[in-house]
């Protein structure tokens, strides 16, 4: 009812504005006996008309009238819960760019079990539709989860019974670990990560603490951006440092693995503003997910959001960021330099896999310290 009344009011205003324009032209014609010459329409009237038309188009698109809905029989009805939630809280503007996916995500039976559609949710998130609209359904949980979980973030294995495997090609953590040890699910293989020095690109955690200690800095809280299965947060936990991990599943249960290790996963894409208050963390690490595939403007916003959550004297760690060598020199290096951070470590090396050699790519590992005051 409220939407219909508002739409009628806007239509009335548009009609009045149109009549005003007609009177304006008519008065210009009557004031002179000479043949009428075209008079420019005042900018403010044009602006008002454009605003009214845009608003009307938006409302009629999202809330079609009964006649319009009848005419377009092929278009599916908007889920009632989507309309209801949109009235309670705005959804991300990018959601409107993918109405079919949003309608599918919000087409469910309220107060019943949620559909198994985590892949659909991530498809929307990766398209900028984040946060997703809330739903009134019950999340599915494994039928027989284990009664207790290991305290050690590096257990010999993770319990398969605590995961819903329906959406994954592998049906166990051992399958994932055997498929590719570098995915992060082979925990005995993960134990040595971040602890050894193999090349100039490495920054072992003990060395990180030595650097912080020499600067009279304390590491207590951190954010790991694109942290996969949470190995960095797991290692820092053993040093009594709390690190939350942003991660996406993308066909493998990264979020589930992080949680089963007693850590906090944040299901958020790289373009999402970090759900952390300003200036409260000591360390932000950008993992392998942060690389040259990110659009430059999006990367710039990501770096400045990391600056937002870092306290003065905190550290930004770009861990094996890769790009084309020429782009690192001309694009990404100057982009990182905009932060004005002190370079504690800045090491580069050739990326020697097939893709790296083909594209002339290099790795960058950089530890940067935020100034105490600007």
UniProtKB/TrEMBL annotation:
InterPro entries listed in its UniProt record: Methyltransf_11, Prob_Methyltransferase, SAM-dependent_MTases_sf
Superkingdom assignment: Eukaryota
Classification via SUPFAM superfamilies: S-adenosyl-L-methionine-dependent methyltransferases (SSF53335)
UniProt key word Cell inner membrane: no
Name the UniProt record assigns to this protein: Methyltransferase type 11 domain-containing protein
Keyword flag Translocase: no
Key words, A-Z: Membrane, Transmembrane, Transmembrane helix
Domain Methyltransferase type: 223-317
Segments crossing the lipid bilayer: 7-26
GO MF annotation terms: S-adenosylmethionine-dependent methyltransferase activity
